[in-house]
Specification:
about 0% strand, oxidoreductase, 2 strands, mainly alpha, two-stranded parallel sheet, Acyl-CoA desaturase, Fatty_acid_desaturase
Length: about 375
């Protein structure tokens, strides 16, 4: 028996809604072609160029560092130039994680048969290993979106995001966890793993958990070496033979470049967190019980994805920088559809939802994030 979802539709109407949704999906998937290929290739070229230029600007700022802290104006110029490079590098990391990595690993571009842009071989610039992320995200989250006891993304194990979650005293600190998770989202995603969650709940032994921890640890180590050792060390070694132009201590150069990389990662973390949370936890988004999804058909799965998601309004650049997850409803309904197609599909999905009387949750970034933050505070307390 399938328990009633929060819509006033008969089973027959829900199934017809699902068939019309299938029609949209099949039409778009059949029309993929050179325009879509050109889009993703251009995005990848742009992202890589931004990353290179960002790092060049960061290194260029080193030439304005005065010797041993003298000349305040020179320090201002140096840090200003490095800030520009850091921001560009942060934007490049956002683009790589959101519009490229996330969507490539959803198999959105596997149809091109390009050996360099395949879901099973892509490794993204993130502490979470691609294979484990695809399991916890593509398989678990997208199958069980917003289903309590099944979807680990409901609160990420540390937040109470719905009154359906029983309150416990640790939730009083969730405004703090909210901010920390925002700043350290890359690290949070890396340990957001079913095996680890099972160990924390006593369902697995340590010896069953160690292989997964080693696998994650190898990816974390690689990211740390790349961002906080390799790039800073390269700048440090370059600064030594050209010390006439870069009079600062090589160790200061190392620290400044490592700090720039850390800030770029935080820029990416905060942006990814905001976009993802705005798509999953603002006011009006539903959560579900296991009983409600028992015996779920594909049409009911479509319906649950719509009720459990929210869109963010914005322009073309905003949508690209969000990985088109500003169209979270369309992404949850059609996770393997090319992300550049979500803007054209969104009005059709919204019109279909309106015809069937199904809520279509969309709003500004300030509205979606504001209600997400308010719910985080409200649900920190019991009887909320």
């Amino acid at each position: 028996m399938t328990h009633k979802l929060p819509v006033n539709l008969t089973d027959a109407q829900i199934e017809e809604f699902g068939r019309e949704m299938d029609d949209i999906y099949n039409e778009v998937m059949d029309s993929r072609g050179e325009k879509d290929r050109a889009y993703i290739l251009k995005v990848i070229r742009t992202q890589r160029s931004m990353a290179v230029i960002g790092r060049i600007i960061i290194y260029a700022g080193l030439f304005f560092i005065p010797a041993w802290g003298h000349a305040l104006a020179s320090w201002g110029i140096a840090l200003g130039i490095m800030a520009i490079g850091t921001f560009m590098l942060g934007c490049a990391k956002i683009l790589e994680n959101m519009e490229i990595g996330h969507n490539v690993m959803h198999a959105q571009w596997d149809w091109m048969k390009d050996p360099e842009i395949q879901s099973n071989t892509w490794e993204w610039d993130n502490m979470s290993p691609s294979d484990r992320w695809m399991n916890s995200h593509n398989v678990v989250h997208h199958t069980w979106t917003n289903v309590l006891e099944k979807d680990l993304d409901v609160g990420y194990g540390i937040l109470r995001v719905t009154p359906m979650q029983p309150w416990k005293p640790s939730f009083l600190l969730q405004p703090l966890w909210f901010i920390l998770l925002m700043l350290l989202f890359e690290e949070g995603v890396a340990v957001h793993e079913q095996v680890i969650d099972d160990k924390l709940h006593g369902k697995r032994k340590w010896k069953e958990t160690f292989p997964m921890l080693r696998h994650i640890g190898r990816k974390v180590r690689g990211q740390v070496i790349k961002d906080y050792l390799m790039w800073p060390l390269a700048a440090m070694l370059v600064s030594i033979p050209i010390s006439f132009y870069v009079p600062a201590s090589p160790f200061l150069v190392f620290g400044l470049v490592a700090g720039a990389n850390a800030i770029a990662n935080i820029i990416r973390n905060v942006w990814a967190f905001v976009i993802i949370f705005c798509g999953h936890f603002p006011a009006g988004v539903h959560t579900f019980t296991l009983e409600q999804v028992e015996g779920e058909t594909r049409a009911r799965w479509y319906l649950r994805q719509m009720l459990g998601s929210a869109n963010i309004e914005g322009g073309k650049l905003f949508h690209i920088m969000s990985g088109n997850l500003s169209h979270q409803i369309e992404h949850h309904i059609f996770p393997d559809m090319c992300s550049n197609r979500y803007p054209e599909v969104s009005p059709r999905v919204e019109a279909l939802a309106a015809r069937y009387g199904i809520p279509y949750n969309r709003g500004s970034l300030t509205r979606q994030f504001g209600t997400t933050w308010w719910n985080n505070i409200r649900l920190a307390f019991p009887n909320s």
